[in-house]
Each structure stands twice: as C-alpha cells, then as structure tokens.
Amino acid sequence: MSRREDYEVKTEELLKPIAEANGVSIYDVEYVKEGSDYYLRAYIDKPEGVNIQDCENVSRALSDALDKEDFIPDAYILEVSSPGLGRTLKKDKHLQASIGQEVEIKLFKPIDKCKEFTGILESFDGNGIVIREGETARTFERSDIALIRLALDF
Fold this sequence. Notes:
single chain; 5-stranded antiparallel β-sheet; alpha+beta; 3 helices
C-alpha cells in the first residue's frame, strides 16, 4: 500500500464514527499533492445533501482526531465538503449507486475521433463500464477512462 493510500485508509477509519455521529456518510477520502501543497479531502454526503454546518462539524472533529493520531508527517490542508452535483465516480460503490443515471466519460485517447461520451450508466465490472446512448450500448475499458462523473443537466 502506498503512503497516500495508507493515509486515506487511516483517515477514513477516523472519520467513520465522526460521520455517523453527524448523520452523514463518507463518499470519499483523498490525499493529493497540488502544486507545492498537500490536501487531505474528505467528501461527505447525506440524502438531502450536506450543508455548511455539516462540513464545519465534521471538519472540526476530524481535525482534532487527526491532531491526536498525528500519522501524516507532511504539512497539509484539510478540506471537508460535499462531492457536489457532478461528482466523480471513482469507486465501485459510486458506480453502483449511479446505475440508471446519466454520466459523462472522458477518455485518455479518442475513440472514433471523440474523447467525451455521455449516456445512461447501465453496468460495470472490473474491466469495463457500459453506457447507453439512445439505442446504442457502448462499452469502455476502465483503463481507457480518464474521468467518469455524473452529468450535469441544466
């Protein structure tokens, strides 16, 4: 397990009781470097959507727990937020919860001169993701997908 993955797993373990106590679920935890800064991001959710107070309550409690455990030696910025409307679908649990919804897929390399596709998420497995564009089902190899997220329809 990489250092990044280790930090994410440990943070999620600390976050579980905090999320439960605040009536939210954990959508994702990520530890990333952007420019010269490290970010520890916790994305929380609940059926009616999270608000600023939810984020603040979870952030304060998580910050205290992280300070106590002190397993990340680097300086980092802690962010707690909602995954948003156009949330990225990174994990199988995200894909499973999004079956039947419209998604956007962006590829690393074009297929038929196109790198972006939109359709209804029909299914997925360890190797591929299937979306329906009108009457056409299209399968994408997971290794070819740069990004998959819920489509925003305004």
